[in-house]
């Protein structure tokens, strides 16, 4: 039996040895084979941003974008709306990190190779490839503009020298192939010096072209376009563990695709009511089980998760399991439903748990227990008393994502003011960190942040009313096997790493 | 789409009071919301929700999740403002006092029509043609009564005042129709189920003119009723 890649990473992770973690008082925390999120141990590796100009250059002139990265990207801060990062995803080995932005572009970063000369550069990511995945479109039939913003990117496991990823906007999913070219055939005798085709009558010898090395070029080509299958906005895509199919989910429907077939998809979930005025619930996220290719989950705007088995029927409108936590009467308000709306759902690498993110909490559910989550973590409970204002400025509708670390022992999610939070499931410790230019010098240890809810504000604490709600961390990613995280803040991509001695 | 032609009165924006005034349940002393949900939503919250709904509908392709969440929240608010079970349906409008002001100044019909038509349009996209009548094409709301049964859900929801959409005000809409039949059906209670139900009688989205004396009387009734009544909790 071929070991699934996610399983392999999970096992490898158990055997990794980490350096000692320091608690804030300076004394080393207990050594653990599993990763902890120990306060004060994260350092900024690099901050990356990709202004629009770079991609134009690379598209037109085939310039190796890696050369540009070092001199160009790190310090410039021209930010346009198109540069806002809308999705972040590591590939299965963690060697590549892909980002999608509002302008429809995909930028792939590659990890710097380890070398004896430049040990300190290990863990840094540089631009590997940039391409325009989606263009703005106009649907003439409905007189609607289709946004080119990349909603999600998902990598396929690597099966040959090339890399494949799926990227999607609101309506269309595309399969991209990213491959390297470092040789060029030379010695054709079919063309003259100017490149014009020679008259075949003048060619008297047979010459076989020779492959000669050339500067590395990374090219991205669209291999498949999966279009016209979604009436509503696509919010999720998920690659199946069979590596032959994937699903795409919009507000009301989920479709199953085969990678080879672009003009057909199977509809596996349809929650559209016969009468649209009876619509009270939409699909918010969906994901396949990491190992069981027949199982998937989808979450709803009412805070429920449904697990479905595709073997049960062709249309999985009837769930196999239904996860919902009863409402806490003491916390009930007019906004209860909005804050219960699930913005992200992720299976653990082990496949035993699912994690959901709603507006104020992250919850971990055991697949075998449907009536309540096994763990609930408060992300920013101090916002509970501000819901009305957050409703007014629409922040209450923000969709935060959540991620597992490679060993499923730590979960991470974003918040406001460029804060992001990590929760260690084993030690029950949590930490708040900040991804911002002002507070991060490269290689300096990140200082834990604290929000003061009332009463006396200590030095270094920030009061709730001073939080900047326009600076939200919606998208984060965790390396599949190491303690390297990518955090997207507007048009900046921060890469942090644990400090290992 | 219908929503493109609609205008909104500027008053609507200025009406939105600072929420701090009404937001007694946001007392920072409470770690969470009060033990029980507030008995009555503030009218500004209602107005805000209606405004959001209107904004959402004005998009050429509204965010369905946002729309559904706002609509559901609006239903909750409306349910708390309009305890359906308690009041006799015919003469007593259940809306909160300030909503009555809005009602006089605005017409809900166009908004509800646009919402209904939007949701209908979403159905039409797929070629499903179960939409019974072109509600969007009707101007005066009176006309829409007859075949309006399936759309009543939306209209029901937006029964009391909604955003001001038409510049010429309420009177202009009703000039050519006789609404005397519907005068008493104005304030049909929002049914707690979300189904469009004709059981509350036709014409409940009507907004016939009320003179001031009647309005004062109604307000007294309301305030008196609300003090006594405990609203049912919103169903899940």
TrEMBL record, chain A:
Which PANTHER family does the UniProt entry name for this protein? PROTEIN PHOSPHATASE PP2A REGULATORY SUBUNIT B
User: Which terms in the GO cellular component ontology are assigned?
Assistant: protein phosphatase type 2A complex
Coiled coil (UniProt feature): none
PROSITE patterns with a match to the protein in the record: PR55_1 (PS01024), PR55_2 (PS01025)
Q: Name one GO molecular function term.
A: protein phosphatase regulator activity
Identify this protein by name.
Serine/threonine-protein phosphatase 2A 55 kDa regulatory subunit B
The record's listing under SMART domains reads:
WD40
Family, similarity comment: Belongs to the phosphatase 2A regulatory subunit B family.
Q: Which UniProt keywords apply?
A: Repeat, WD repeat
Automatic annotation (TrEMBL), chain B:
List, as start-end ranges, the regions of compositional bias called Basic and acidic residues: 197-207
Source taxon at top rank: Eukaryota
Region described as Disordered: 189-211
Segments traversing the membrane: none
Alphabetized PROSITE patterns for the sequence: SERTA (PS51053)
SERTA domain segment(s) = 38-85
CC per GO annotation: nucleus; sarcoplasm
The protein's matches in InterPro entries, at most eight in alphabetical order, are given as: E2F-SERTA_domain_protein, SERTA_dom
- Output the GO biological process annotations, alphabetical, semicolon-separated: negative regulation of cell growth; positive regulation of transcription by RNA polymerase II
What is the name attached to this protein's record? SERTA domain-containing protein
The species is Macaca mulatta (Rhesus macaque)
Q: What is the lineage of its organism?
A: Eukaryota, Metazoa, Chordata, Craniata, Vertebrata
């Amino acid at each position: 039996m071929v070991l699934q890649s996610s399983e392999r990473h999970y096992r490898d992770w158990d055997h990794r040895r980490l350096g000692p973690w320091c608690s804030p008082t300076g004394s080393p925390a207990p050594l653990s084979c599993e990763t902890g999120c120990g306060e004060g141990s994260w350092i900024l590796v690099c901050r990356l941003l990709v202004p629009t100009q770079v991609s134009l250059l690379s598209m037109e002139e085939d310039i190796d974008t890696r050369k540009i990265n070092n001199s160009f990207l790190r310090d410039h801060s021209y930010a346009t709306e198109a540069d806002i990062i809308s999705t972040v995803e590591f590939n299965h080995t963690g060697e590549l990190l892909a980002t999608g932005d509002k302008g429809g572009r995909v930028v792939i970063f590659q990890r710097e190779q380890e070398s004896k000369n430049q040990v300190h550069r290990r863990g840094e990511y540089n631009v590997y490839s940039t391409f325009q995945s989606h263009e703005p479109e106009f649907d003439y039939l409905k007189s609607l503009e289709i946004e080119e913003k990349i909603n999600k990117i998902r990598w396929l496991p690597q099966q040959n020298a090339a890399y494949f990823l799926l990227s999607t906007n609101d309506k269309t999913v595309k399969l991209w192939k990213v491959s390297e070219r470092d040789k060029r055939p030379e010695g054709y005798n079919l063309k003259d010096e100017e490149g014009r085709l020679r008259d075949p009558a003048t060619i008297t010898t047979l010459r076989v072209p020779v492959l000669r090395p050339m500067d590395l070029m990374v090219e991205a080509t669209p291999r498949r376009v999966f279009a016209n299958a979604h009436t509503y906005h696509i919010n999720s895509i998920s690659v199946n563990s069979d590596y032959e199919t994937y699903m795409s989910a919009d507000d009301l429907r989920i479709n199953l695709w085969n990678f080879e077939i672009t003009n057909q998809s199977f509809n596996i979930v349809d929650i559209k009511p016969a009468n649209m005025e009876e619509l009270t619930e939409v699909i918010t996220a969906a994901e396949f089980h990491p190992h069981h290719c027949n199982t998937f989950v989808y979450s709803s705007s009412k805070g429920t998760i449904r697990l479905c088995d595709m073997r049960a029927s062709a249309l999985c409108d009837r769930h196999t399991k239904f996860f919902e936590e009863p409402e806490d009467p003491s916390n009930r308000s007019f906004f209860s439903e909005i804050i219960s709306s699930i913005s992200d759902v992720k299976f653990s690498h082990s496949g035993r748990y699912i994690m959901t993110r709603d507006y104020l909490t992250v919850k971990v559910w055991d697949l075998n227990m449907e009536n309540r989550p096994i763990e609930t973590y408060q992300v920013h409970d101090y916002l509970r008393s501000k819901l009305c204002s957050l409703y007014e400025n629409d922040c209450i509708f923000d969709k935060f994502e959540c991620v597992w670390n490679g060993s499923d022992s730590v979960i991470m999610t974003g918040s406001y003011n460029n804060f992001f939070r990590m929760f260690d499931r084993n030690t029950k410790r949590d930490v708040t960190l900040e991804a911002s230019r002002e507070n991060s010098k490269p290689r300096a240890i990140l200082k834990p942040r604290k929000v003061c809810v009332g009463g006396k504000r200590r030095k270094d604490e920030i009061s709730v009313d001073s939080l900047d709600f326009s600076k939200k961390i919606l998208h984060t990613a965790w390396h599949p096997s190491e303690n390297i995280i990518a955090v997207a803040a507007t048009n900046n991509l921060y890469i942090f790493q644990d400090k290992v001695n | 789409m219908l929503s493109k032609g609609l205008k909104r009165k500027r008053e609507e924006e200025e009406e939105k009071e600072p929420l701090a005034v009404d937001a007694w349940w946001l007392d920072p002393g409470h770690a969470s919301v009060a033990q029980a949900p507030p008995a009555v939503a503030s009218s500004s919250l209602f107005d805000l929700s209606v405004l959001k709904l209107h904004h959402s509908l004005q998009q050429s392709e509204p965010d369905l999740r946002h729309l559904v969440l706002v609509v559901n929240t609006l239903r909750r608010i409306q349910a708390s403002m309009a305890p359906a079970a308690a009041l006799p349906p015919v003469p007593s409008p259940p809306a909160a006092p300030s909503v009555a002001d809005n009602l006089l100044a605005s017409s809900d019909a166009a908004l509800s029509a646009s919402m209904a038509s939007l949701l209908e349009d979403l159905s039409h996209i797929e070629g499903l043609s179960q939409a019974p009548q072109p509600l969007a094409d009707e101007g005066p709301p009176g006309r829409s009564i007859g075949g309006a049964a399936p759309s009543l859900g939306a209209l029901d929801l937006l029964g009391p005042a909604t955003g001001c959409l038409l510049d010429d005000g309420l009177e202009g809409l009703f000039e050519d129709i006789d609404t005397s039949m519907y005068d008493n059906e104005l304030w049909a209670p929002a049914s707690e189920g979300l189904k469009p139900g004709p059981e509350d009688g036709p014409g409940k989205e009507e907004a016939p003119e009320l003179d001031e004396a009647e309005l004062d009387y109604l307000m007294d009734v309301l305030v008196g009723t609300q003090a006594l009544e405990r609203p049912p909790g919103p169903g899940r």
